[in-house]
């Protein structure tokens, strides 16, 4: 096989993989090839393809095994009725590409997905073979994330979990009616059943590792999923509630949100334009509030507008605070951590720093200002040793005062 042909297929299949957002590589075991054993590492720096939650750049070879597909999901550019260039790798070619890219210091790991070719079981076998060969034949110790096929036999998905750091299955759309309408070949119950099977296998492997030191690992970085935003009529509250349910039922590490992007030769039932990217950003912010700030989905719903959509001009925490002004102001010298986390503009690190500092002295507004980007948005919501907002918290025009200023963008700037 000529090198030019391989690069041409790589261009096609790497471009086809760009629509999958769920490729962060945080949370896996630390492995290294230092000492002369193995190939690859889960740590280090390289070309950035994703970001870990700590901000570290992660370089991944993100590619499809093939963009041939027997399914006809309306929102997918690789659906069987789509008029796109098709290509396909063998498992051995993906293995060699991964090793070659790693040795050139281009990547730290592999994110591998695929269209459904021949059958779900056949495709899952091919994906698993890539991970098995990397681990067993080449002692590859870098990060591997496999996108599992929910329609495949559970035994095949279980095999994949023995070689991959993370397994993910996309729920695709926030609601079951939306999935039935836009992805008629997929079944919501089957997708959730596969996610439940993976979650159980992860829990069993963790329990076995506690009792038996050399018990096999299973997807040590957990499982994740992805939802497409804006392809159906689901509002932000429906998306947040679905994500919360998935976290609670399956112990997911992450839910990723991907703004719908119009595709060539699109189906007539799809929207004509993509939703604003800021909507995707607001959903990630709300996701962070439920995972790290103690907000319940019902509280995020309070921040939404009458149509169930989060405001785009301000972040969800500020929107919630403006509607729940009776909870403010909060005294930075006496309030518990849970109350401080709800103050707009205070992040988890800033709150922890405030709690540590106030053990030694009473905090002034300047002390808080040193830990935040802007103290102006904090003033209406907190009390310090030298500061009280008095009537500022109840001002009618408080939202206008705190919202970021509108900017006119220049087309040719």
Low-pLDDT segments, ≥5 res: 25-34, 38-48
Instruction: Give the count of helical stretches.
Output: 14
Radius of gyration (Å):
24 Å
- Span between termini: 45 Å
Task: Name the overall outline.
Answer: globular
Largest beta-sheet details: 6 strands, parallel
CATH architecture of the largest domain: Alpha-Beta Barrel
* Domains (count): 2
The fourth-level CATH homologous superfamily of the largest domain is: Aldolase class I
- Residues in helices, as a percent range: 25-40%
Mean pLDDT: 87
CATH topology of the largest domain: TIM Barrel
Please identify the structural class as seen in this structure: alpha/beta
Strand-residue proportion: 5-15%
Order of helices and strands: HEEEHEHEHEHHEHEHHHEHHHEH
Number of strands: 10
Major sheet: arrangement of strands:
3-4-5-6-7-8
Q: Regarding CATH, which class of the largest domain?
A: Alpha Beta
